[in-house]
Amino acid sequence: MLEPDRVKVVYARISPTPTPSPLPPMRLLLSLVALMRPHQWLKNAFVFAGLVFSETWGDGPMIVKVLKAFGAFCCFSSMVYIFNDWQDRASDARHPVKRLRPLASGAVQPLPAFLLALLLLGGGLALAAGNLSLLLLLGIYLVLNLAYSWRLKQVPVVDVSILASGFMLRLLAGTMAVGIPPSRWLLLAGLFIALFLGFSKRKAESFHDQADQRAVLEHYPPALLDMFMAVTMTASLMTYGLFATSPEAQQQHGNRLVYSVPIVVFAMLRYAYQVHKGRGEDVSRDLLRDPWILLALAVWLLIFLGRRF
User: Fold this and answer.
1) 214-261 pLDDT, tens per residue?
2) What values do phi and psi take at 306, rounded to 5?
3) Is the N or C terminus of the chain more exposed, i.e. has fewer CB atoms within 10 Å?
4) Cα three-residue angle 146-96-167, rounded to 5 degrees
5) What are phi and psi of 107, to 5 degrees?
6) Integer Cα distance of 172 and 138 in angstroms
7) CA distance 101 to 213
8) Following DSSP, what letter does each residue of the chain receive, concatenated?
C-alpha cells in the first residue's frame, strides 16, 4: 500500500498540467494595450519635425498627412514590439522587470498577440494608402526591425545603427513623404541624436546584469560606449548648431533657433548624466521622468514659438 505522500507524487505525475484560466475581458484588453507599448509612441514624434520646423501647422491638408504618417508608424512600431516580445518571451521571463510583459508573463497568449499584430498591420497600411513614399518607408522600417529582432541585434554597432535608422525613417516620413523639403542639417542632426540615444541605451543596460538579455553587451566595453556617446553627442550638437545658423533656418525662424542651442546642449548633458546613473534603457519613459529635461523642452518651445528677434 502506497504512503499518502507517494500517492500525491504519483497523482501529480499522471494528472494533466492545468491550463491557465482565461483573463476577464477587461484585463485581457488592458494587457493587449500594454503589449502595444503606447508609451513608446513618443518616438514617433520625429514625424512632426518637418511640420514644426517648416511652420506649416496652419495648413490643414498637410496636418492630416502628417497625422496619418504618425498613426501609421504607431501601428507598425507596435506590431514590431509584439513580434520582438514573442521572439524574446523566454528570456524576458527571467528578467526582473521584463517578466511582467504580457507575453512573458502569460497574460496574453501568442494567438491573440498574432491577431493584434495583423490588425495593426492592416491599420498602418490603411493610413498610408495612396502615399507610395510613406509605404516604402514603412516597408523599410518593418524589414530592418524584423532583421534586428531575428539576428542583427547581436551585431555590435549594427544594432544601434538599425535603431537610429528607425528615427531617420520617421523623420523622412514627416518631411519627404508628405511633401515638406527636409533640411540637410536637420536630417544630420536627427541621425546623430538617434545614434546618441541608441548608444546611451546600451550604456544604461551595461550597468545591469543582463548577460542573457543583451548578448551584444559583451562586445561593448564601457570605455568604447563612452567614446561612442561622446562622438555622437558632439556631432549632434555641431549639426544642430549648423542647422540653427544656416541661411534657410535664419530665413524661416530668424535668430530664435540660435538662442535654443544652449538649451539643447544642457538637455543632452543632463540626459548623459541620467544614463551614467543607470537610467536610459527606455528612452520614452526616462525622458519624461526627468523634470530638468522637461523644463529644457518647455524653454525650447518658448524660444521657438516666441516672436522673432
Assistant:
1) 678 888 888 999 999 999 999 999 999 999 998 888 887 888 889 999
2) -70, 175
3) N
4) 35
5) -65, -30
6) 11
7) 14
8) ---HHHHHHHHHHHSPPPPPPPPPHHHHHHHHHHHT-GGGGGGGGGGGHHHHHTT-TT-HHHHHHHHHHHHHHHHHHHHHHHHHHHHTHHHHTTSTTGGGSHHHHTSS-HHHHHHHHHHHHHHHHHHHTT-HHHHHHHHHHHHHHHHHHHTGGGSTTHHHHHHHHHHHHHHHHTTGGGTPPPPHHHHHHHHHHHHHHHHHHHHHHHTS--TTT-GGGGG--HHHHHHHHHHHHHHHHHHHHHHHTSHHHHHHHTTHHHHHHHHHHHHHHHHHHHHTTT--SSHHHHHHH-HHHHHHHHHHHHHHHS---
- Give residue for cell 549632434: 236
Q: Which three cell numbers stand for residue 30?
A: 488592458
Cα separation, 301 vs 253, whole angstroms: 13
Residues whose CB falls within 8 Å of the CB of residue 250, separated by 6 or more in sequence, listed in order:
none
46-55, 216-225, 266-275 — most confident range: 266-275
Which residue, chain included where needed, has cell 521571463? 93
Contact 298, 266 (CB under 8 A): no
Supply 4's cell numbers: 499518502
Q: Report how far residue 309's alpha carbon sits from residue 305's, in angstroms, rounded to the nearest whole number.
A: 11
Burial of 140 (0-12, 13-18, 19+ CB in 10 A): middle
What's the whole-model pTM score?
Answer: 0.80
Cα Rg, the chain, nearest whole Å: 23
209: its cell numbers: 546584469
Q: pLDDT at residue 302 above 50?
A: yes
CA distance 279 to 25: 35
Q: pLDDT, tens digit, for every residue of 73-115? A: 999 999 999 988 888 787 777 777 777 788 888 788 889 889 9
Among residues 167, 241, 160, the alpha carbon closest in space to that of 204 is found at 160
pLDDT of the residue at 300: 92
